[in-house]
Design a protein that fits this description.
Mean pLDDT of chain A: 90
Number of strands of chain A: 5
Distance between the termini of chain A: 35 Å
CATH topology of chain A: NADH Oxidase
Oligomer: homodimer
CATH class of chain A: Alpha Beta
Structural class of chain A: alpha+beta
Strand content of chain A: 15-25%
Number of domains of chain A: 1
Largest sheet of chain A: 4 strands, antiparallel
Largest interface: A-B, 81 and 81 residues
Strand order of the largest sheet of chain A: 1-2-4-3
Number of helices of chain A: 8
CATH superfamily of chain A: NADH Oxidase
Amino acid sequence: MIVYDAIVRKRDTRSFADRPVPDDVLDRILQAGRMAGSARAAEPVRLVVLRDADRRAELAACGNSTTHMLSAPLVIALVLVPEFGQVGAPFTLFRGPFDAGRAAQNMMLAAWEEGISSCPASMHDEAAAAQVLALPAGHYVANVIAFGYPEGADPTTGTRPRMAAAEYIHWESW
Amino acid sequence: MIVYDAIVRKRDTRSFADRPVPDDVLDRILQAGRMAGSARAAEPVRLVVLRDADRRAELAACGNSTTHMLSAPLVIALVLVPEFGQVGAPFTLFRGPFDAGRAAQNMMLAAWEEGISSCPASMHDEAAAAQVLALPAGHYVANVIAFGYPEGADPTTGTRPRMAAAEYIHWESW
């Protein structure tokens, strides 16, 4: 699959087949996250991999709209280490989550090439999520991604509604 | 180029040849950003494309370590619209920049497939950057990416040092 096609055809799904992600595929997904660049090469992101169904349910309880974490055989939480996750100036705030987004997209695209779809889940109760994952003080869950083989209609045939390019793109100035 | 290879071989560069990015390639880079998913499909990200050298220099003055924005023929600022960019609870703070990171990685990978390398630049003076781009009140620059054909050594042969997988990945719990 060429990169551009993977990017523009990727479609997130929230229903997953009862079929595990093979270990070699998991290795590639994790490596894709690890190789993502970061501001000043500071590497603020860490991953917590959840495959156990009870563990996935515990973490799913920390967010709204997380039922897809129950059927997904693989859930990966992106954690920010303290110096990036703490509330401070916008620059500090933005850097960690931005880098987590880069790592997440790498993982989602690598998975997509393997026929695995994915969907993020936000942890609305951030403190509870940190507790479930037993994070050290000051660590934050930037986001959680659920992965699995899509169930139901072929996701590549679905629509991907996006705002018009003219609204999305500005030239030289806002 | 297959997706996994693009991801793990991508290397950011900060030196660019004096060669413009063709319009059709630019179209694909922008489309790659536009097709990135977002939390609740809220689409909090917008792009401002800068190719004019004076405009790039004005924006580069708003951050440290931004000299690569001067030689890069293409600079794209990722802007967050107000409801996502404002300071608030961690959930709100994280969502916009995380989605901007997803869009940025899509654009950087699509560019890489075309032989174009890239490197982010943080805007340390966020208010000045918003002023240069003439952003409406409450809009934030999440990050800026400089793109161009790499100058000097082939970037695919360079090293990409990352922390060990054992430090990066945790299993079932921290």
